[in-house]
Amino acid sequence: MSDRAPAGQFLDAAIDLLRRVRDEEADSIAAAGTLLADTVANGGRLFAFGAGHSSLAAQDLVYRAGGLALMNLLAVPGVVGVDVMPAPLGSALERVDGLASAVLDSSPLRDGDALLIISLSGRNALPVEMAVKARALGVRVIGVTSVAYAAQTTSRHVSGTYLKDHCDLVLDSKIAVGDAELTHDKVPAPFAPASTVVTSALLQAVMATAAATLADRGIEPPLLRSGNVDGGHEWNRRVMEQYRDRIFYRH
């Protein structure tokens, strides 16, 4: 470890990753934003799914000031966040075959919708099966993952494939296998994960692209405003009423 303070090292590492995403994923970000804009313009609905800590980036898109009102969370009981007890149960559920199919069968997803699937490793049964089954329904799938895992780990899906193999578009977060940016000669394990910072920024770049693309087509993007600014609640009520048949987190 260098003489620089760990906080500065971590922030530098996160900035470097964000620069890589900006420069290397620009075309994929543009394509993903366009896909979402097309979905909105064509009357489709938007959904996001992530398991464990990957769910944090998905939740950051839903009912978000400055975000698209049509983004809905596709929740899988026991894997959204770390509130399940005991916490390791959530990790175990990600490896259960058939769980994604059961969730999709009871979800509102349909042909013409778009689904963001966020999985850092992309190796577990849940995100792989989610992508396969969603595409079979006619849903367009955008995978957000670290492509490095496919080269350095073994798939836990029966097919031996990864999330990246079953998507219409893939966004690579560039996170190294293990998701830890720092080491220290007195610390036995690497530490300081950056995946949440980078993945959230990557997805907000996609949302910004989608909003601007809609506006460039003469379509007002269905954006939410902060409830902590004057007129925010009134604005949001109007948007939610206008798009009530495509918003599911109100029910």
What does this structure look like?
It contains 9 helices and 7 strands; from the N terminus they run H-H-E-H-E-H-H-E-H-E-H-E-E-E-H-H. It has 251 residues and is α/β, with parallel strands linked by helices. Helix 5 runs parallel beside helix 6. It is globular, with a radius of gyration of 18 Å. The model has no long low-confidence stretch (mean pLDDT 92).
Poorly predicted tracts of residues: none
User: What does the largest sheet look like?
Assistant: 5 strands, parallel
> What is the share of helical residues?
40-55%
Radius of gyration: 18 Å
**Number of contiguous helices:** 9
Instruction: Give the spatial strand order of the biggest sheet.
Output: 2-1-3-4-5
Mean pLDDT: 92
Distance between the termini: 50 Å
- Shape by Cα distribution: globular
Which key terms come to mind for this protein?
alpha/beta; 5-stranded parallel beta sheet; 7 strands; two-stranded antiparallel ribbon; globular; 12% strand; SIS_dom; 251 residues; 41% helix
Task: Summarize this entry quickly.
The protein is of the alpha/beta class and 251 residues long. The protein has helices at 6-24, 26-41, 54-59, 88-93, 99-105, 125-136, 148-152, 195-216, 232-242; strands spanning 46-50, 71-73, 114-118, 140-145, 169-172, 182-184, 187-191.
In terms of topology, how is this protein built?
Blueprint (H helix, E strand, L loop, with lengths): L5 H19 L1 H16 L4 E5 L3 H6 L11 E3 L14 H6 L5 H7 L8 E5 L6 H12 L3 E6 L2 H5 L16 E4 L9 E3 L2 E5 L3 H22 L15 H11 L9
Parallel strand pairs: 1-2, 1-3, 3-4, 4-5
Antiparallel strand pairs: 6-7
